[in-house]
UniProtKB/TrEMBL annotation:
It comes from Naumovozyma castellii (Yeast). The keyword RNA-binding applies. This is THUMP domain-containing protein. InterPro entries: THUMP_dom, THUMPD1-like. It comes from the Eukaryota. Residues 1-25 are annotated as: Disordered. The gene is NCAS0E00340.
Length: 292
């Protein structure tokens, strides 16, 4: 028999890109994460390219948290006696040989980024866990992609990103509780006297449980605490935008700043690229005209 052909990537000294698994299923209540729209029939390719971008930004943004976790693990090991360390290693080996055991499942480290197959055309979802804060995470990614200093196109299939702080079951009672939780840090407490301008954007996919206007009206009531606060609805020049994503049995919510519309084109990655490249082309044309 012929010899096994060596891996071309390994022989060239290149490291292979991390592959991201896609798990199937509905979105559970209490889920945080990021919706992304993408090209038709390119959902898996979109998840792969977005996974690479997310992983890179995760390592960059949460480096301190990751370092603290590593240091904590090392300190715990150092505090153990030689005998206890041996016992711990034997215990870990024993659990590895019992992949179906409950203790193994409970001890298994949960990934901070996990793609979920929604079985929905042109839409993918990445579930996030601590320390990731979806709004901050997506805002930083969009800011970097929109920077005129960064002219490299990082994605081919991704269109729009939408962060979800938290989610609930698709009932009006749960929606009210979700709204109270998500809106308070942005509109209540120290922000109660600010008189912010806001809007509500609702997206529904495979969802008909609650009418769209009922969702909007309920969110407005929660923002203004039924008219007690000075916040006003402004659909064009808002300070804050409440994003509500409804999918099947799940309702997700987050709050973004006015830059979402005015500067970052509703977090549409393709439109951000197009605008940036057009601006760069116009600038070059202007410079060439000046030099003539």
């Amino acid at each position: 028999m012929g010899e096994k052909r060596p891996n071309s990537n390994a022989s060239n000294g290149r490291t292979q890109k991390k592959k991201f698994k896609i798990n199937s299923g509905f979105l559970d209540p209490g889920t945080s994460g990021i919706y992304a729209t993408c090209s038709r029939r390119k959902e898996r390719l979109a998840a792969q390219e977005l996974g690479q971008l997310f992983e890179e930004k995760f390592q960059e943004m949460y480096k301190e948290e990751l370092t603290k976790d590593d240091d904590s693990d090392e300190e715990n090991i150092d505090e153990l006696s030689i005998e206890d360390q041996i016992k711990q290693e034997l215990s870990e080996l024993h659990e590895k040989n019992k992949p179906t055991s409950k203790s193994h499942d409970n001890n298994k480290k949960k990934e901070p980024l996990q793609f979920i197959d929604l079985d929905c055309e042109c839409v993918i979802f990445c579930k996030t866990r601590s320390p990731i804060v979806p709004e901050e995470f997506v805002a930083k990614i969009i800011e970097d992609l929109a920077s005129p200093d960064n002219m490299e196109k990082r994605t081919r299939y991704i269109a729009k990103l939408t962060p979800i702080t938290y989610s609930c079951n698709a009932t009006m009672e749960q929606l009210i509780l979700l709204a109270q939780r998500i809106l308070a840090p942005h509109f209540h407490g120290e922000h109660s006297e600010d008189g912010l301008k806001f809007a509500v954007e609702v997206t529904r996919r495979n969802f008909n449980t609650i009418p769209k206007m009922d969702i909007i009206n309920q969110v407005v009531k929660e923002v203004t605490e039924k008219g007690k606060l000075n916040h006003k609805v402004d659909l064009k020049n808002y300070d804050k935008l409440v994003l509500v994503e409804c999918f099947k049995n799940n309702i997700g919510m987050s709050v973004v700043s006015g830059d979402y519309l005015t500067k970052y084109r509703k977090y549409n990655v393709q439109q951000i690229y197009e605008a940036k490249f057009n601006d760069n082309s116009e600038e070059k044309d202007a410079q060439n005209a000046t030099n003539k």
